[in-house]
Amino acid sequence: MTSWLHSVQDRIRRGEPCVLVTVASTRGSTPREIGAKMLVTEQSSAGSIGGGQLEYQCIELARQQIREDRDSRSKLRSRTFPLGADCGQCCGGVAEILFEPVSDAQAWIGQLATLLRAERATVMATLTHPNASFTKLLITEDDCAGEARADELSAKIARIGKRLLERNGPAEKTIVNIAGNLKVPVLFEPVRPCDFHIMVFGAGHVGRATVHVLGELPCRVTWIDSRAELLQGAVPDNVEAVVSRQPDAEVDTAPPGSYFLVMTHSHPLDREICHRVLKRGDFAYCGLIGSQSKKRRFAKCFRALGFPEDAFQAITCPIGVPGISGKKPGEIAVAVAAELLQVHEQAMLESATVKPARGNTLLISGVTGGR
Asked: Phi-psi bin for 75: left (phi > 0), alpha (psi -120 to 50), beta?
């Protein structure tokens, strides 16, 4: 599930009026792309549309909108910001921003969450004209939900959304023309199931630091340890904490194309996890925290278990991007997250011509450990 949708559902459960702020279109240089979102309540905000004066002004406008309509029933609003003239920002482009009140009365919120849980790619189509008779459509390859109607406009929006799904395109704003020369501006946003799934084994210092760094990234994290007390406390919205008496067995639950990062407090447990990963043979990445000497010992062990001489070379050890030699948990976490982003981004580039394995999952076994 996307982090903004999780935040929307959380605020609705609390009964907090909120406004979803979205970058609808851009011209020239802007700090964020079309589709970037921020959720604003009277007391807080989540997400970002680029920071600086643009974000500050949008937060204030969203809160003004909440105060003007306590029931959050006002219609979607739009405002264009020349970033140089209005915000004093050096990028100097122009951004159109949507302000959309959200509430439990809007069925599309639950419908979108259901589609994403079912791992169904969806295009969210938002009619940005303030006088539109409806606002939101949810388009899948074989259906159209949300506020869909049996009319020409809904049908044409659905066709455009399905074409966007087919070509795996980015978010875009399009003018939809229908009979009578009626022109309707529509924001089309692909909302795809997360393909960067992370399972974190271990809740020690490095594991905890890594989880909180990953909590700021566009990924889903499952945090696993046998010690329930270490998994207690607040965790990021994209993290699920799981207590397991046999953490290494969780390797078998990962889908093909998974990423594995192994850094538990126990070398025997590290070996068991690596053993299961190598037996699967379908992983995209496996990183083992530790030194070169640890890597050599593990390689010798796996040769004794009958793995080919070069099998262990597929496991990255030490882990983290080069050039960061610090061993503090936070330093390791940042280096590891950077490496994982590099690997994942490369996989995304390759998927432009080769269809990726379904469900890239990163499994992190993380507690304290050397490098």
From this structure: beta
Does a structural domain hold residue 371? no
Distance CA 184, CA 176 (A): 5
Of 162, 191, 220, the last residue of a domain is: 191
Rounded Cα distance between 148 and 139, Å, is 9
- 8 A C-beta contact, residue 323 and residue 334: no
For residue 124 the two structure tokens come to 């969210």
Query: pLDDT tens digits, residue range 302-343?
Result: 889 888 878 888 898 899 999 998 999 999 999 999 999 999
Phi, psi of 248 (to 5 degrees): -65, -25
Give the mean model confidence (pLDDT) for residues 171-195: 86
**Shared domain check, 213 and 187:** no
pLDDT in tens, 66-105: 988 765 456 789 999 988 766 766 667 899 999 999 988 8
Residue at which a domain ends, from 54, 77, 102? 102
Domain of 306, in residue numbers: 197-366
